[in-house]
Amino acid sequence: MPPPRTLLEAYVRQRRWSHRDFCRQYAETAETLGLDLTVTPQHAGRWFGGKLKGMPYPAQCRVLEEMFKARVDRLFGPPSADDDRNDSAEARGAAAVEPSNPEQEITMAADEASRFIQFAEQTNVGPHTFEQFEADIRRIVAVYPNRPVYPLFTEVRALRKRAFEKLEGQQFPDQTRQLYLIAGLLSGILANASFDLGKLEAAETQARTAFLCAELAGQNWLRAWIRGTQSLIAYWDDRPKAAVDLAVSARQYTPENGTALVRLASIEARARGRMRDRPGMEAALAFAADARDAVTSGDDPGGMMAFPNAKQDFYAATGRLWIGDAALAEEDAHRAVQLYKADVPEHRRLGEMNLARLDLATARLAGGEIEGAADQISTVIDVARQRPTDSVTRRLRQFRGALNGPRFGGSRVTEDLADEISVFTDGAAVLALPSGADR
Known about the structure:
Layout: H1 7-14, H2 19-32, H3 41-48, H4 58-68, H5 72-75, H6 87-97, H7 102-120, H8 127-143, H9 149-168, H10 173-196, H11 200-217, H12 220-236, H13 240-249, H14 260-274, H15 278-294, H16 309-322, H17 326-342, H18 350-366, H19 370-386, H20 390-403, H21 412-427
Helix pairs in contact: 2-3, 2-4, 8-10, 9-10, 10-11, 10-12, 11-12, 12-13, 12-14, 13-14, 14-15, 14-16, 15-16, 16-17, 16-18, 17-18, 18-19, 18-20, 19-21, 20-21
């Protein structure tokens, strides 16, 4: 066995403790001091190896000094030849932390203050760290609506892991809040990605983590945005009442910027439409319009976190379809499609535009315009062959079911359209989903 790297490691070896034994003794000692502290075997291993940029937290130092009756600056220093862990050494250690005269007590108090200054001045992040996180996040939210989900999922997961590791270290309070904001944003993106990959339970877990980070960061816009994501998950999980409750509960968070409240109200309107609550849906749509008028600054970081006018119209169309108002739904859906088409190709949200086209096709089908509906469906399938999404696949299956009704059965156009949908949906690949915003 190699020689001990620190006096702490030497003491642990002499007691024949494993890492887990040490952790258990640490927790028991902390309890005797009235402290609720624990340490993991991995963190204990870093202590034993002296892999520290400074001293542990003051409360942790108290526990270690109580355990070994020696000052922490000695425990984390190299062992000397006469550092045998026996009774006389314990007595020497006890004498080191229990001075016998006031002058020594005063000197020790000054040493403690000095150690605290060293601790308080330490940080494991700097301006370049935050600049890189910000650049990565802005790039990801910008390209998310146009890229396959799974490759981005793995990249975001690695970034979030880095943020979590930074949070396990030490920063100034403002830096810690900034790291929680970064972790919350990345967790929110992972919630979207998990949903798009068909993992609703995983999506809900990521969303809960994101909301906790938003709370710790003190960012209302992120709180509201995450509640909206949780509402969306409930909506697609056939829990429209829960979707409404989540959306309404988030109105208490006045966002610092952006369209988070517009998004919440639009999500609520669609869920109320599904519940056949026409007055509630109309009230939510009115609230969304007022919230849009009240927006004074853009979304930051933007991209998939923003809620454009086209999406507001598309959600209104879906809500109106649920209550059977096909004429107004067609107007909303047509306007949404035109707004999506007006975007430059590299910024066009093709998944959302496909869903708006599906609403337009459904409204036209309700009006007996089978040919007009078929044109929209053919366009959707052409786009979705290159960029399939789970939401589009679900809606296409629903549309095919509507074609089986007695009103349209038997026509050549209907049969050809049903066959075209079946060929696509039977071969659709969920893991090829491109966008977390396609809902």
